[in-house]
Amino acid sequence: MEISKKDVDYVASLARLEFNEKDKESLTQKLGSILNYIEKIKEVDTSKIEPTSHGASGENFWREDKVIKSSQKTIDAIFKNAPDKEADFFKVKKVMDTEEE
Amino acid sequence: MNEIIKMSATTLAEKIKNKELSSVEVTKAFIKRAKETDPKIKAYISITEEYAINQAEESDKKIASGAETGELEGVPIAIKDNILIENIKMTASSKILENYTAPYDATVIEKLKKAGAVFIGKTNLDEFAMGSSTENSAFFTTKNPWNTEHIPGGSSGGSASAVSAMTAPLALGTDTGGSIRQPASCCGIVGLKPTYGRVSRFGAVAFASSLDQIGPMSKTVEDSALLLNVIAGFDKKDSTSINVPVPDYLETIKQDIKGLKIGLPKEYFIDGLDSDVKKSIEKAIEIYKKAGAEFVEISLPLTDYAVAVYYIICCSEASANLARYDGVRYGFRAECDNLLDEYQKSRGHGFGPEVKRRIMLGTYALSAGYYDAYYGKAQKVRTLIKQDFENAFKKVDLILTPSAPTPAFKIGEKSSDPLQMYLSDIFTISCNLAAVPGMSIPCGFSEKGIPIGMQLLASNFDEQTMFKAAYSYQQATEWHKQFPNI
Lengths: 101, 486
What we know:
Chain A is mainly alpha-helical. Chain A has helices at about 5-15, 20-40, 70-80, and strands at about 85, 90. Chain A has three helices and two strands, in the order αααββ. The relative contact order of chain A is 0.07. Chain B has an eleven-stranded mixed β-sheet, with helices on both faces. In chain B, a hairpin with a 5-residue loop joins β10 (about 440-445) and β11. Chain B has a domain at about 1-260 and about 440-480: Amidase signature (AS) enzymes (Alpha-Beta Complex), CATH 3.90.1300. Chain B has helices spanning about 1-5, 10-15, 25-40, 50-65, 105-115, 155-165, 180-185, 220-230, 275-290, 305-320, 340-350, 355-365, 370-395, 420-425, 425-435, 465-475; strands spanning about 45, 75-80, 120-125, 170-175, 190-195, 215-220, 260-265, 295-300, 400, 440-445, 450-460.
């Protein structure tokens, strides 16, 4: 199972990961050999089998759809790690490109 | 001081409660040992000395006043650096979290605080718990205390080394594909992965949500049970936590194992098995036979597919779990002039190569057109792997295997070939896929003096049977009483 450079570029853009050219080459080769190995699961007959997505039980636990307000202490602790903020907001670069409107 | 660092957690807890030793004295002994050995061993990302001494003083005050004390009152424990302790730096051994301070306690940490434990430091791991040798840490590689040219195992290599080097009597690790059991085996200590859902994952950095579990690492089986008693239990904050009552794991640990049926899966005892590992396991089987256990040959036919299934599932889940590291709310943010570049560069530069490789593999496996062939298919093969174990446990009470196909390999030996590294997990991986509990116990040494581990597997929520079999073995052997010369 070969993975092309084009596939690697596409997947990298989905994963929002940047690679330099040298790393991309090594990655393409290593991914190719790993994908080659995992192809073996196709040998298993799973025609009548249900998937397992979970550990020891499939039961979902629900909670009430209620807002539990965080303490100021928690809010402060969270914002302590913020790379950039303004009041109680995380500050980021422009999300919409208004020139394309 | 030398005597203190060799004591088990059970002994220390008793002596601290009796006031034979103070928690401050004990904590200082382990910190001194950590500072002495860590320049060579490098088990710790940070030794939290001041924090630990404060906790130790609190414990001593509590004991002096006659107030109610916890099961681990005043006993030091090292914590893998992918578990959050409020106000303490947590890195997941990644540059992307190099300057991150935990805003809250993990549930296991809350429980340990209630039990009176003292946090001696945060230990090194493979970045985001992705690895089998601790060589993927973004900061440094931890060394095996038995031979510093060899790996301590991974991803909980720091925790395993810390206990093995006597810098802490206990440690917490996390296990997704063997990351507690394999380093425990490499470093000659006891490591347990509980049944999936037994211990809360709230506050542990998520790697693969359907596989991750936090578990105890210790020198003795008794200590492992003591620690599991504290950390196990249903937690509303973990949506995969399972509401099964926690028994007292110490209560049944000394029970007789006569008539216990132990399965030997033929797929794990192949021709290529290392001869030192084979010899140690054969000797262990003899010891169990003397204690009255019966051995049954069993088959786990899907074993050969486990590594492939595991890597598809864990990488797919990791690609989703690691999407949160985008430089927006926390973690490394690259200097850029637009948002897309900011995502790509923050993640591109913040994550190490193995992490990026696994995110790529997972993203590919989940992408349109490939989901059914990879993730969908892997989930179905996973059902069959689970059934292998269910069928086996109809015939036997426990399964015994080597923990790893070879003793700990040399640093650098497999780091350039990720696939070779993945294949070294072959014996530990199925256990996470099937959700069953598993434990590694030291059972010998290779000719070069590197520890060898034996793995016990039990059916869901039957940690008690594993504990009593492991305890019985430790009563008949002295491997756990040996210490490395550092």
